[in-house]
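Many introductory courses stop at the sequence. We go one step further.
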Amino acid sequence: MALLAANPLAGLIARDGSLSVPMQILLLLTLLALLPALVVSLTPFLRIVVVLHFLRQALGTQTAPSNQVLVGLALFLTLLIMQPVAMEMYERGWAPLARGQATPEQAFREGTQPLKNFLLRFAREKELRLALEIARAPEPRTPQDLELRVLIPAYILSELRVAFQIGAVLFLPFLVIDLVVASVTLSIGMIQLPPVMISAPFKVLLFVLVDGWTLVVGSLMRSFH
């Protein structure tokens, strides 16, 4: 009792120096609470869901596919890409910590290294320099020395940039169809009929004929490899 009163965290550390079961449960619950934000921000989910949203807007189908379908598709595609990274993080971080072969600091450092390598692959130098300037952090000797607090915002900004670029490219062919249909309807005097009502079936038909879902998803997946 005296030991617990002197050090409230004494019961959270086992005698061999590893984390006790209550501490492991606490860490696990904390990670679960942060998991949605981590999945959205630190994975390809960000790029995929933004591109799919642009695609739906370009098609002009409003709510088809629904948000649940787009989020579900983005989530499972993200799992396919991030599975090797997650397994490496577990083997290098959590597994040694659970066996008592590493301290929490060592487990965090080793476990986050695969994530750092993934973020570095897609974070642009311009965004990295901006994050370093905002954080007022010193210039690292190597990219691997960058901290997560610098890598995370740089990665998010880089992914948003790429997602908007892809979305703009997706808009172009459908914009051409909208312009052609609008010109035709105006030339024949159909002013009261909205051009969107006529162009929507043509855009959907074009998308189906070129097997658009396979092309878009395939291009997105290849952009991460």
